[in-house]
Design brief:
5-stranded antiparallel sheet, signal, 6-stranded mixed sheet, Septum_form, 27% strand, single chain, alpha+beta, 16 strands, 8 helices, Septum formation
């Protein structure tokens, strides 16, 4: 038996994906106007539309790419559209304020599982992630108050998978879980380890999730210890010979815990 243990890394897996962009403008507020803007509001995005986004575009807070046919090559699909609440205590919040951004950052990941199917562990063991967009400041000034949630498939460190067709319910079936699953080019602590789709060439697979206690970050020693037995068992279960097997454990850092990844992953050769 051989084992590997490594702290989880890769910024895009902190808590799924998150919209990035300009420095946080802080809690800027403006008084609620007595006269509404006269400009025609910018129309909201279409539900379940598809887009051909580059990696950097998927992580940006706004996006103006035109939609494409979902039956053609694309890299993201919208799965939820809604309206942000920009009025708090009688004040109108800026669309790029911390409170509005956090509101969307909570909402979009919560709705992803219901769209792609499977259970919570299936999603955590996949390369499917949520990204989200809001209007530009100029669009917001014209009356736009929508948010848009897209699902993407991460293909590598700085790359998105190309999709043909739709991602609705893809984790309900084993074929979809295999295609979009999380695999690695080597053991998770190896120097040449890279996270890849299981439909690509790979050597290891993330095979199960280690649930960790709710609350604040327990500390690296505790989260590391929590995965030893369950991941050893997972490695044994995945092996052809229960007396000769390998396993790995990837636990969350304090930063990842704060961003929402309050679980670890077990790995095994595949």
């Amino acid at each position: 038996m051989r084992r590997w243990a490594v702290a989880a890394a890769a910024a895009i897996f902190l808590a799924g994906c998150s919209g990035g962009g300009d420095p946080d403008p802080g809690p800027t507020t403006t008084p609620t106007p007595s006269v509404l803007p006269s400009a025609t509001p910018v129309p909201g995005p279409a539900a379940e539309a598809c887009y051909r986004l580059a990696y950097g575009e998927a992580l940006a807070p706004t996006n103006d790419r035109p939609a494409v046919d979902c039956d053609r090559r694309h890299t993201s699909q919208t799965y939820a559209v809604g309206r942000v609440d920009t009025v708090v205590d009688g004040h109108l919040l800026a669309i790029d304020s911390t409170r509005v951004r956090e509101q969307v950052a909570r909402t979009c990941p919560e709705q992803l599982g219901g769209f792609v199917g499977g259970d919570e562990d299936d999603l955590r063991l996949s390369m499917l992630r949520a990204v989200w967009f809001t209007p530009t400041v100029e669009q917001s000034d014209a009356g736009a108050d929508w948010y848009r949630c897209d699902v993407i498939a991460v293909a590598g460190t700085d790359d998105l998978a190309t999709v043909t067709g739709r991602l609705d319910g893809v984790l309900d079936e084993q074929e979809g879980r295999d295609r979009w699953g999380m695999c690695g080019t080597a053991a998770p602590d190896a120097r040449d380890f890279a996270r890849v789709l299981c439909s690509s060439d790979h050597a290891w697979r993330a095979v199960s999730v280690v649930e960790l206690p709710d609350g604040g970050y327990p500390g690296e020693a505790d989260v590391r210890e929590a995965g030893q037995t369950p991941c050893q068992d997972a490695g044994r279960d995945a092996a052809e010979d229960p007396l000769d097997y390998q396993w790995g454990y990837e636990w969350p850092t304090a930063e990842q815990w704060a961003a929402g990844q309050t679980y670890g992953r077990c790995w095994a050769p595949d």
